C-alpha cells in the first residue's frame, strides 16, 4: 500500500478460531514491522490508539486500505459484505470505490460505483464518547493519501464540518447501520441525525464464558447448549440445588485465587460483590465508595460484605488511572470493616473467574454512556444476578427481583452524571433488598439469589448465537 507517496510493505499473521462444530474461522492481523519499511512505518502497528492524530490516520489507512488489499492478496475476491466495527476501518470504502471503477475500465468514480460500495458495507457504532470518533483535517489527509479527486468531488460523503470524520464516513457508505443495544441505537440516532440506525444488542459466546462448574452442569442437563444457546432457557428445569452447587464451586475457585494473590482472607460464606471491566471514568467504578460510612453500615448488617475489583486503564487515560487510585485508597480506609481486593493483571481468564464466581455483579456507568456492556451477561450465564444502572443492555435484561435489580429511583436512572442520587439508590437497594435477602440463609445459596432466572432468561438470549442470527437476517442477507 502507498502512504505519503511511498510503498509500505504489510505482513499478515493468521490465527484460526475453531468452533465447537469444527468449522474454522481465519482471523488476520496486519503488521508493518518489517525491515523493508522505514523505522517510523514499522511502528504503525505497535500501539493500539497510540500516537498523535497523524499516527492515528496512518493506522486507519493501514487497516482500511491495507486490510482490503491484504484480503485480495489472500484470494478473498468474492466478499459480499464488509462489516465496519466503529469508524476505524472506514477508509476501506475508498479502496472499494477504486476497485469498482477499475472493474468498469474507468479512472474516475461515478454514481454506480458509490451505490455498489454502499451495497457491500455495514456499519456498527458503539461509543457515544466524542473521543472515540476520529476526525482528521484535509491537510493531514492529503499528506497521508495524496490529492484524490474523489475527496473534492464527493466532499459531502467523505467530510463532515470540513473534516474527514471516520464515524460519519462509515454510515455514509453503508446500507445498514446499527447500535449495539436498543438504548445505544437511540443515542446514535441523536448523534447522527439523518441516518437510519437500527439496533442489534450485543451478546456473549456462551461456550467461552460459562465457568467450568456450569459447563459441566450444562453438558449433563442441557446437552445442546453449546450449539443452541437458546436451549439454556431450560435451566429453569435444573434442580435449584444443582445450580447453587455449581455457583458455590465457582465461588470457591475465585476466592482461592483472590486469597492466594492478595492474602486478604475472603470467606466463602460472605457475600461477594464483583466489578471488573476497563477502568474508564464514565464506568464509575468508584461509585460504591461515594459514602464510606453508609457502606460500612450496610456491611455490618451481614457480618461484612466483600468486594472484588479488577480492570486496567488505557495508558493515556489519566481519569481512569485516578479512579483506580480512589478505589485502592478506599480499600485501605475500609480494611478493618470490609475485605476488598483490587486484582492485578486483568485479562480474559481473570474476567471469567470473577464474573462467574461472585454473588452479585455491580455495574454503575454514567448514563447514557454505556454502549451495551457485556460483563453482566457473562455473570448471568453463571447464575449471577446484576445490580446495575439502567443503561445499555440492562434496560432490556432487567426483570426486577428475577434477573437482578436496577439502580435508580422507581426503576429509572437519574439524570446524567448525578453521582449522589445514583449512589443513594445503590445503597438503598443493597441495604433494603439484596443484603437482607442474602442474610436469610447463610448456609445455603438456594434461597438467597434468583440464580436460575439470570441463567434461563438472560443467558438464553444475550448470546452470540442470537446476535449473529440477527446480523445475518437484518444486515448480511
Structure description:
The chain is α/β, with parallel strands linked by helices and 477 residues long. It is 43% helix and 15% strand. The longest helix is centred in the middle third of the chain and has 23 residues, at 240-262. The model is unreliable at 410-414 (pLDDT under 50).
**Helical run tally:** 20
Which ranges are low-confidence, i.e. pLDDT below 50, for 5 or more consecutive residues?
Answer: 410-414
| Whole-angstrom Rg | 24 Å
Helix content: 40-55%
Taken from the alpha-carbon principal axes, the silhouette is globular
Biggest pleated sheet: 6 strands, parallel
Oligomer: single chain
Indicate the structural class. Answer: alpha/beta
**How far is the first residue's CA from the last residue's CA?**
31 Å
Number of beta strands: 17
- Overall mean pLDDT stands at 91
The main sheet orders its strands as: 14-13-12-15-16-17
Beta content: 5-15%
Amino acid at each position: 500500500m502507498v502512504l505519503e507517496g511511498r510503498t509500505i510493505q504489510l505482513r499478515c499473521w493468521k490465527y484460526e478460531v475453531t468452533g465447537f462444530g469444527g468449522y474454522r474461522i481465519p482471523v488476520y492481523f496486519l503488521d508493518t514491522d518489517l525491515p523493508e519499511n522505514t523505522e517510523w512505518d514499522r511502528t504503525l502497528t505497535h500501539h493500539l490508539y497510540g500516537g498523535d492524530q497523524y499516527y492515528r490516520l496512518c493506522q486507519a489507512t493501514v487497516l482500511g486500505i491495507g486490510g482490503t488489499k491484504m484480503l485480495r492478496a489472500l484470494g478473498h475476491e468474492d466478499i459480499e459484505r464488509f462489516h465496519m466495527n466503529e469508524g476505524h476501518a472506514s477508509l476501506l470504502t475508498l479502496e472499494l470505490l477504486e476497485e469498482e471503477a477499475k472493474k468498469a475500465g474507468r479512472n474516475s468514480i461515478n454514481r454506480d460505483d458509490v451505490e455498489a460500495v454502499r451495497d457491500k458495507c455495514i456499519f456498527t457504532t458503539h461509543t457515544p464518547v466524542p473521543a472515540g470518533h476520529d476526525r482528521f483535517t484535509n491537510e493531514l489527509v492529503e499528506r497521508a493519501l495524496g490529492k484524490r479527486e474523489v475527496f473534492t468531488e464527493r466532499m459531502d460523503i467523505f467530510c463532515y464540518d470540513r473534516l474527514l470524520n471516520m464515524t460519519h464516513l462509515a454510515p455514509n457508505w453503508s446500507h445498514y447501520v446499527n447500535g449495539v443495544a436498543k438504548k445505544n441505537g437511540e443515542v446514535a440516532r441523536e448523534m447522527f441525525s439523518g441516518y437510519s440506525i437500527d439496533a442489534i444488542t450485543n451478546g456473549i459466546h456462551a461456550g467461552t464464558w460459562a465457568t467450568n462448574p456450569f459447563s459441566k452442569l450444562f453438558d449433563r442437563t442441557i446437552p445442546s447448549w453449546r450449539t443452541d444457546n437458546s436451549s439454556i432457557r431450560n435451566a429453569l428445569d435444573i434442580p435449584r440445588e444443582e445450580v447453587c452447587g455449581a455457583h458455590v464451586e465457582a465461588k470457591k475457585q475465585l476466592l482461592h485465587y483472590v486469597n492466594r494473590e492478595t492474602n486478604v482472607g475472603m470467606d466463602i460464606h460472605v457475600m461477594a460483590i464483583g466489578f471488573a471491566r476497563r477502568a474508564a471514568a464514565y464506568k464509575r467504578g468508584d461509585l460504591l465508595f461515594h459514602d464510606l460510612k453508609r457502606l460500612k453500615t450496610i456491611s455490618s448488617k451481614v457480618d461484612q460484605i466483600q468486594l472484588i475489583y479488577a480492570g486496567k486503564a488505557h495508558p493515556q487515560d489519566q481519569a481512569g488511572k485516578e479512579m483506580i487510585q480512589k478505589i485502592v485508597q478506599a480499600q485501605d480506609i475500609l480494611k478493618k470493616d470490609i475485605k476488598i481486593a483490587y486484582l492485578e493483571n486483568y485479562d480474559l481468564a481473570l474476567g471469567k473467574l470473577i464474573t462467574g464466581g461472585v454473588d452479585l455483579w455491580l455495574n454503575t456507568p454514567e448514563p447514557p454512556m454505556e454502549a451495551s456492556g457485556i460483563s453482566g451477561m457473562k455473570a448471568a450465564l453463571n447464575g449471577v444476578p446484576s445490580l446495575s444502572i439502567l443503561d445499555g443492555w440492562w434496560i432490556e435484561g432487567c426483570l426486577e427481583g428475577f434477573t437482578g435489580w436496577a439502580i435508580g429511583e422507581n426503576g429509572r436512572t437519574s439524570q446524567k452524571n448525578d453521582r449522589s442520587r445514583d449512589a443513594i439508590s445503590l445503597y438503598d437497594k443493597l441495604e433494603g433488598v439484596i443484603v437482607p435477602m442474602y442474610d436469610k440463609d447463610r448456609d445455603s445459596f438456594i434461597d438467597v439469589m434468583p440464580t436460575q432466572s439470570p441463567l434461563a432468561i438472560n443467558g438464553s438470549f444475550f448470546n452470540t448465537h442470537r446476535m449473529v442470527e440477527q446480523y445475518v437476517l437484518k444486515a448480511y442477507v
